[in-house]
Amino acid sequence: MEHFPIVQALCRAAMADASPATRKQVERLRDALARDGSSKESGALTSILTTADRTHEIAPSRIERSRSKAVGEVLTRSTPVPVDRETAAALADIFFPADIQQGAPLFDSIVSYAIETIVEEWAHYDAMSALDIRPSKTCLIYGEPGTGKTRLALWIAQRLDLPVISVKLDGLVSSFLGTTARNIGNLFNFANRYQCILLLDEFDAIAKVRDDPQEVGEIKRVVNTLLQNLDLRRDVGFTIGITNHPKLLDPAIWRRFEVQLEIPKPDFDLRRVIAAHFMKPVQAPDVHLRLISWFTEGTTGAEIESLVRTYKKVFTLRDDNKKGLLDTLRQFATLNSARIKTERRALLFGDSKLLFQAMRDDPILGFTLADIGEVSGRDKSTVSRQLGRGTKSSDSENVNG
């Protein structure tokens, strides 16, 4: 064979962590070469197979404890994922620590401290075991869409150096009677076999209140199956559930989770930090970051990121950016009407005097006339005339700058 050295290298690489199916194919190739009289090539593959057998015999068992004390086999990129029997669709996605975005999610200090305690419990597993206690193995993360729940779950997995078996529970639902419960069982059996974190996203898709008169008996059986599998997994591995609709969850579901962590919408200071984080590498003036934070009151981190993207596009495409940030905010509010509160939208598109007054008088924003001029593309004297004489604190140096 002209290119046998390449084939030989491929076989050697494949046998380094071979599944039974892979080994079978290498054996078939060896036997086919032997039948064709290519004894040298056949012998080379025999040597690769023999070496793989010896390596397997002396290697430590793959069933071992990882740094975070998860038990089971080591999950690899070649591990086949279970599929729905009717559609052949994969029941889960797998994310390895190296694939997960670096950096901790941005939350306020209280939430951040609570998250760190979860990680620290696992980092001190041995010390806790000596006191006959164990780290929390179940965590339900809930909050509005865009608050960073899924990113948080993946970051926890990265800190624990464990792969994530991620499943959107609505993807397990089948129109075939009994298939949904079977999919749940197969998924949990798969997760329980490996060292991993099981991430159950969109938890409310299945874990609905069982006495809901709109639900048929099949859903009630599915919820019972989910409860039983959660109970069985408690002593096996770490499970994280995520939901945007906590009120839809069955009370029995809540009782299965030791940690119940709500992710709130960010406050003014955190919104400013989030805006600065997503603004990189653009160096936006602090006055711009403060106004973005003010106008995004009641929004999530994902919505702030979307606004910052609009800002960066304007920064990139406009050579003359003197028109000010307010025009950029109006552009964003027009294209994303649901992402800005009604009161803020009214100020943006209403009388400039009312907008300037609101920015000047808000104690959190703390804008001077110079600040208002910068974000509106006007000079300080023009802003002062716009506000009019005799307005509150209009001639005060500590307010107007």
Q: How many independent structural domains? A: 3
Oligomer: single chain
Strand segment count: 6
Tally of individual helices: 18
Name given to the CATH architecture of the largest domain:
3-Layer(aba) Sandwich
Proportion in β-strands = 5-15%
Q: What does the radius of gyration come to?
A: 29 Å
Describe this structure in words.
Helix content is 51%, strand content 7%. The protein is built from 18 helices and six strands. A six-stranded mixed β-sheet has the order 1-3-4-5-2-6, with helices on one face. Helix 7 (179-193) packs parallel to helix 8. The longest helix is centred in the first third of the chain and has 20 residues, at 39-58. The protein is elongated, with a radius of gyration of 29 Å.
Provide the fold topology.
Elements: H1 4-14, H2 20-35, H3 39-58, E1 93-95, H4 109-123, H5 125-130, E2 138-142, H6 149-160, E3 164-168, H7 179-193, E4 197-201, H8 217-233, E5 238-243, H9 251-255, E6 259-262, H10 268-279, H11 286-295, H12 301-317, H13 325-335, H14 342-349, H15 352-361, H16 369-376, H17 380-387, H18 397-400
Parallel strand pairs: 2-5, 2-6, 3-4, 4-5
Antiparallel strand pairs: 1-3
Helix pairs in contact: 1-3, 2-3, 7-8, 10-11, 10-12, 12-13, 16-17
GO molecular function, one term: ATP binding
Biased composition (Polar residues): 391-401
Region (Disordered): 378-401
